[in-house]
């Protein structure tokens, strides 16, 4: 993700979710760039998609406002992926897509999972703080892709 966000023009994936990450020999690869957009520093967002598209459980709330810089939306989705990796379920897995959107728009997030599997997978206080930063309601306060990869 840091690679694509650091390119000129910037590439924003637009539909990050666990199903769009393939892992082989310990290496993760992003796939399905069907909703990807580009943006260079000199122009506004360039895209073929006019409406909001993506997977509701992984969509940042500000997508409904059509922000010009959608890199923070990928970061939000990455936070949801991290949550899913530890818990085994996507955030708000038991709610309808509309209810998920409403929860995220209000700044509500799932509670920290406390089961033993999450603890065994390494979900400690630092990692939970990291995940919460990735889906911070204010997109300007989220980590960037380069910060998240440190």
Automatic annotation (TrEMBL):
GO terms for biological process: signal transduction. It comes from the Eukaryota. InterPro entries: Kinase-like_dom_sf, Plant_MAPKKK, Prot_kinase_dom, Ser/Thr_kinase_AS. PANTHER family: CCR4-NOT TRANSCRIPTIONAL COMPLEX SUBUNIT CAF120-RELATED, MITOGEN-ACTIVATED PROTEIN KINASE KINASE KINASE 19. This is Kinase-like domain-containing protein. The keyword Nucleotide-binding does not apply. Coiled coil: none annotated. GO terms for molecular function: ATP binding; protein kinase activity. The lineage of its organism: Eukaryota, Fungi, Dikarya, Basidiomycota, Agaricomycotina. Residues 1-150 form the Protein kinase domain. The keyword Repeat does not apply. Keywords: Kinase, Transferase.
């Amino acid at each position: 993700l840091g690679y694509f966000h650091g390119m000129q023009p910037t590439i924003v994936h637009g539909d990050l979710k666990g199903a769009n990450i393939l892992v082989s020999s310990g290496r993760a690869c992003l796939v399905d760039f069907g909703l990807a957009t580009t943006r260079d520093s000199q122009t506004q967002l360039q895209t073929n998609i006019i409406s909001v598209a993506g997977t509701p459980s992984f969509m940042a709330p500000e997508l409904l406002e059509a922000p010009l810089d959608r890199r923070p939306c990928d970061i939000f989705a990455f936070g949801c992926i991290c949550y899913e990796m530890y818990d085994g379920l996507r955030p708000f897995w038991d709610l309808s897509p509309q209810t998920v959107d409403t929860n995220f728009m209000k700044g509500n997030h799932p509670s920290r999972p406390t089961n033993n599997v999450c603890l065994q997978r390494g979900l400690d206080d630092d990692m939970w703080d990291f995940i919460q930063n990735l889906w911070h309601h204010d997109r300007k306060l989220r980590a960037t892709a380069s910060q998240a990869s440190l």
